[in-house]
Amino acid sequence: MSLAAKVVKAATPRIPRPRKAVLTLTPSAVNRLRSLTEGPEPKVIRVGIRTKGCSGQQYDLQYTTKKEKFDEEIKQDGVTVLVDNKALLSVLGSEMDYVEDKLSAQFVFNNPNVKESCGCGQSFMT
Fold first, then answer.
1. Whole-angstrom Cα distance, residue 81 to residue 67?
2. Which of 39, 36, 88, 89 is nearest to 63 (CA)?
């Protein structure tokens, strides 16, 4: 008479992988966002993406006073930014910067997910 035996690998404790930041803010972006959202009534900036431009997608920044159900909340250096749930996969791992030069002042997204962008730099494709 023989008995059946089964070899099972010993369970090792799972070490959680660090989560990749959805969006990081540069110090100049933090300062600009702070100046834009200060005021008597609390408001935050929601980062979204809309279909527009020659490459297909464009960043959309809107003021809001409340967080939607599936928005991702980014808090950094006392500033809060919301990322629209539909934009999460396109924005994941991006850095938001604020750049001023002689002719313009704008938020610039350094996005590792961008596969192609238009010549003017306003639209992109992931």
1. 10
2. 36
Question: What residue ranges in 29-92 does DSSP mark as E strands?
Answer: 44-51, 57-64, 72-76, 79-83
Q: Where are the alpha helices (DSSP H) in the chain?
A: 27-37, 88-91
d(CA 54, CA 44): 29
**54 with 123: CB under 8 angstroms?**
yes
Q: What is the pLDDT of residues 94-107, one digit of tens each?
A: 888 888 888 888 88
121/104 Cα distance (integer angstroms): 13
Query: Two tokens at 83?
Result: 């990322």
**CA-only gyration radius of the chain, Å:** 21
**pLDDT one-digit tens code per residue, 14-71:** 777 666 778 889 999 999 999 888 878 878 889 888 876 666 778 888 888 888 888 8
